[in-house]
């Protein structure tokens, strides 16, 4: 069987594969995921790949067992290992008060990442039509230029080699090569938001307004991605040039274009509180207006935060001792927390940057957890041989009092492991006796469209 030309071009263009990579291939059994699996298998020998087929039985369809059996059988025929997860996404959605779509996505990605040890790569079968639907869905919900960029070919540990391959191209390849797949009947039922767009909205627009509407949405995504990268570089540079000691100096910013200024404000808030969750577009507009008027004042923001304009800079303040963020257990994979997404992964590689640490897995006692500071907290900072009160550490590091309640504290059943992102504990460092590594990273969350 010949590999799909576009698929291979994408693999090479984005440098998606290295020799002896370990691949987690998300396979539902449908045409898209089987296209992904068959093409990855065509590259198996060339790259000496270890491919693990990952299938999730969501427990909501009578034919789910048929799909599971099909995927297991095909993996066996290709001599590939297959891992299966059984869940009930509807029950999970009710329990966690989220939509079934959100529940299914969370459960799938959590499962894929639980398999992703040894620096694995997770390959997903999102195609060009999925990209178009994502753009339209975000337009309907309300989004900015970053949201219009939609999905990336590579996003951290996620790889999407089919983003520019349309559904009819996939079906043509499947038919030409006489490849079997299973059909998810719910794809033809308008019971989910995505399905309603796919089955009703997009066909209506193509029939009545623009027969190339899907292509238009894809182009919009590509243009938005390029524009966002350009704008983001400008705003990030301006932010860094005018930011010092937790203050954003506005003298050189207040006369900027309103959009550029709003993006700088978003950078400032993300830098100060790690997340834009709960911060609305109106909040951003209010801050922009405050800067433009340059009159000493303050704005109340969600989370008991006050943004204060004083002379020629703005800064954030809050009531001291007012916030206590409840502890949360961290599991392998992606963890949604108050502070943003926390990723926990087993690895054989040491990694460290501004928002990531590597620690000795065998030194962890009990569960990994996250919260903010508590009275009496202490830990042994990296490079020291004695404990230090967290309060004194904050003072020495010149961390403003109003910001201390927003600092994530990652710890186990006995003591603090990481004061994020400032310092790791000496007691959890990797040494010559380390046999297993745990990587922990913080992904700053941005939901302030």
From TrEMBL:
Enzyme class, broadest EC rank: ligase
UniProt-annotated location(s): Cytoplasm
Domain of life: Bacteria
EC number: 6.3.4.19
InterPro entries (alphabetical): Lysidine-tRNA-synth_C, Phe-tRNA_synthase-like_B3/B4, Rossmann-like_a/b/a_fold, TilS/TtcA_N, tRNA_Ile_lys_synt, tRNA_Ile_lys_synt_N
Keywords: ATP-binding, Cytoplasm, Ligase, Nucleotide-binding, tRNA processing
Protein name (record): tRNA(Ile)-lysidine synthase
Lineage: Bacteria, Bacillati, Bacillota, Tissierellia, Tissierellales
Record gene name: tilS
